[in-house]
Amino acid sequence: MYVGHFAIGLALKARYPKVPALPIMLGAGFLDILDGIFIVLGWDRVAPNLLAGPYLFFDLKFIDWDHSLLAGLFWSALWGALFLRDRRVATLAFVAALSHLVADWPVHNHDMALYPHAETHVGYGLWGKLGTASWVLEGIFAAALATYAWVASARRGVSLLWPSVLLVVLFLNLSPWLSPMKHVAGLDEPLTHLLHGTLVALGFLVPGSLMTWLLNKAESRATRFG
Hints:
This protein is 65% helix and 6% strand. The longest helix is centred in the C-terminal third of the chain and has 35 residues, at 191-225. It is globular. It has eleven helices and four strands; from the N terminus they run αααββαααββααααα. A two-stranded antiparallel ribbon has the order 1-2. With 226 residues, it is mainly alpha-helical.
């Protein structure tokens, strides 16, 4: 899942408006930021596969250090611990990070282990079962959450126009036709896995930071003119 993670963060922020945006929006993508870094380091392993849909174009061979249940719980707790000065913020940061694992389960192709190097793997596999249709379903899921966030924020006089525009851009950018991973999959090693990991990490770090900035601007604007 991709745009759906940012939509979950947007909904959480709308539900808990007093919690800063950064712990939520970066938290929602934290596990994939780690995944990208671990791929670059060679700890996680991916393999090019131009038939892997809907926008992957890679098989996720080993992602246990960040997307296994145990690792996900550990990293989510660590992310939450960074904000322990405020227990409410720390809790929402933990929830945002852990939501990544929960949201990934329906789409991942049986590549999420219970713990690193475990034989048992889970993942319902909508990517493999539905292909492009799974991308459409993710868009519907994200749109529903964004609508909730829009309505909840509008009640407080906060406009989510630009965060919503960003969601649409992210949804279209990582589509079966525009996904940069298709081009990366055609490169030679070690460039292909290095670039793949870099794009995964930046693909969550940069939009998450931009979404945080846009949400802060929207809150500030509402306070100034409210």
